[in-house]
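Run log, item B.
One chain of 182 residues. Sequence copied directly from the ordering sheet:
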Amino acid sequence: MRRHLAYAAGAAVLALAGCGGDDPTPQVADPTPTASVSASPSASAAVEKEAWEKKTDDGAVAFVEHWLEVFNEAETTGETQVLEDLSAPGCETCANFVEITNDIYGAGGFIKSEGWKIQQVGRPTETATETVVAFNVDQTPQRVRQTAESETLARPGGKLSLSAHLAWRGGKWVMNRLDRVA
C-alpha cells in the first residue's frame, strides 16, 4: 500500500519567474566607502525561527505544511535530500517516497503534477512519544514516466486523509511516520 501511495504522490508546480530586459549593461552606482557598523549583541543574537522550527502546536502544523511543500518539490525535481533531512530514519513511508522518486528520476523518468494541496489540518494531539497531526489533501492529477523509455501514465488524483506522526529530535521536528487514514 505504501508503494501505491508513493506512486500516487503528486508534485508541486514551481513558479518560475524570468528576468527580462534588453539592456546588456547593468546600471550600478559607484561604490561609496561606508563606516563599519557593529551590531549590538541583541541584534546579532538568534535569527528568528520559521514557524515550523518551533516546538509548539502551531509549529507542528507548520512543519506538516513545510514537509508537504518539500515533498511536492522533491517529486517535481527529483531532489530528495531535503525531504530525507526532514524525515526520521525509521519513517518507512518517507523512505518509500524517496526511493521511488530517486528510482524514477534516476531512470530518466519524471513526475508532473501540481502536487498535494492541503485542504484541512486538525489540531495536534500528543502521545507519550509523538505529536500527531491529521490532515486532508487533494492530490492533483499527475503524469508519471517511470523510465526514459516507458510510456507516460496518467493518474487522476483524488482526496486523501493522512496522519502525520512527528517527533521533536535534536531541536527540530521530523516526520516519524505518515499514515493514510481510511
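Observations after the first pass:
- Residues 1-38 have pLDDT under 50 and may be disordered.
- Residues 74 and 80 are 5 Å apart (CA to CA).
Flagged for discussion on Thursday.
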